[in-house]
Design goal:
This protein is of the alpha/beta class. The chain has a domain at about 1-170 and about 205-230: 3-Layer(aba) Sandwich (Rossmann fold), CATH 3.40.50. It contains eleven helices and 13 strands. The protein has helices spanning about 10-20, 55-60, 85-105, 140-160, 180-190, 205-220, 235-245, 260-270, 280-285, 295-300, 310-320; strands at about 1-5, 25-30, 45-50, 65-70, 110, 165-170, 170, 195, 200-205, 225-230, 230-235, 250-255, 290. A seven-stranded parallel beta sheet has the order 3-2-1-4-5-6-10, with helices on both faces. Strands 7, 9, 11 and 13 form a four-stranded mixed beta sheet that branches. The protein has a two-stranded parallel sheet with strand order 8-12. Strand 1, helix 1 and strand 2 (about 25-30) form a beta-alpha-beta unit. Helix 1 packs across helix 6.
């Protein structure tokens, strides 16, 4: 197949490109002129410069393409003042890619969403593909944006475009040069993570998520969503693994009763000093984002995910090798 990957220079997109090449597919990368190409270094791919927010640049990029993997999208969603811009960019970019794919006659589009689009589990039950988004849009613009973007993908599928949605959990592994989940590792290495939160998250290895994308292109059902996850871990367990791989003591648990107070303090500080996160991140940290990945394993034929420790260990090694941490 000839595949085009948006967001190709990022953490996940570059791993998708690498796997496609390894499997014998022809890969066309789509990225902005200002994008760093380190993650694609050495790959035999065709580079096309453009922007998903510029429809004119998408049309020529999609000519002759069989598969589109739309993995582009802003991820710095915990900074103050970025909520409305984030939502607009994700929705507009997705609409543009869908329209261009339909016009070009591509055979299938795989949209990279997120488990954030599933909302929160208020009862502690496992999140699955049927769970509706149920959180405040103002307090979780990223999850809300992905939720709305999925609606655009389903509408395109109903109109005749062959689309599949994948929902990765929290991704770790080598090559996270833009510090998405890796911000936690680098922050801990620099002693900037004083506490851990009382909730939990699903942690998945980046190569397993890339494999899930390829499986979705090959075997996914049109209009369906598939959770690409790994291990369900408490935040305490995740940060303990990170600390052990860094050779540090793990941070102390913030008592659940103090989460709301701490979030309010962070919001006040953000009025004076721009922090890389806001109080809404702490509020969400109280929830358990544990996932049921049975549907993806059953319908996409995915095997057992690799351990979270392997993903974190390889991420730590990559950051050390590239000078992010010592």
């Amino acid at each position: 197949m000839r595949a085009l990957v948006t967001g190709s220079t990022g953490f996940l997109g570059s791993h998708v490109c690498r796997l496609l090449v390894e499997c014998g597919h022809t890969v066309r990368t789509f990225h902005r002129s200002t994008s760093r190409l380190l993650a694609l270094d050495g790959l035999p791919v065709e580079h096309v410069v453009g922007d998903v927010l510029d429809p004119g640049s998408l049309q020529p990029a999609l000519q002759g393409v069989d598969w589109v993997f739309h993995a582009a999208g802003r991820v710095a969603h915990w900074r103050e003042g970025e909520g409305s811009a984030l939502v607009a960019s994700i929705i507009t970019g997705t609409k543009n890619v869908l329209q261009a794919a339909r016009a070009a006659g591509v055979r299938r589009l795989v949209f990279t969403s997120s488990v954030a689009a599933l909302g929160v589990s208020e009862t502690g039950a496992l999140l699955d593909e049927t769970h509706p988004f149920n959180y405040s849009p103002e307090r979780w613009p990223y999850g809300y944006a992905k939720h709305l973007a999925e609606g655009e993908v389903r509408a395109a599928a109903n109109a005749g475009l062959d689309c599949v949605i994948v929902n990765p959990a929290l991704i770790f592994g080598p090559g996270d040069l833009n510090l998405v989940a890796g911000d936690l590792i680098v922050g801990m290495a620099r002693r900037r993570v004083p506490v851990t939160l009382p909730g939990g998250i699903n942690v998945v290895y980046v190569a397993d998520v890339a494999a899930g994308h390829l499986a979705a292109a090959e075997r996914g059902r049109t209009g369906e969503r598939y959770i690409l996850g790994g291990e369900n871990l408490t935040h305490v367990e995740t940060l303990r693994i990170v600390a052990e791989e860094l050779g540090l003591r793990p941070p102390q648990l913030l008592p659940p009763a103090l989460v709301g107070t701490a979030a309010g303090v962070v919001d006040l500080v953000n009025r004076v000093v721009r922090l890389p996160y806001n109080g809404d991140l702490l509020r969400l940290g109280r929830y358990f984002f544990y996932c049921d990945t049975a549907k993806a394993r059953r319908e996409l034929g995915l095997g057992e995910p690799r351990p979270a420790r392997q993903a974190i260990r390889e991420a730590v090694a990559w950051y050390r090798e590239h000078g992010y941490i010592t």
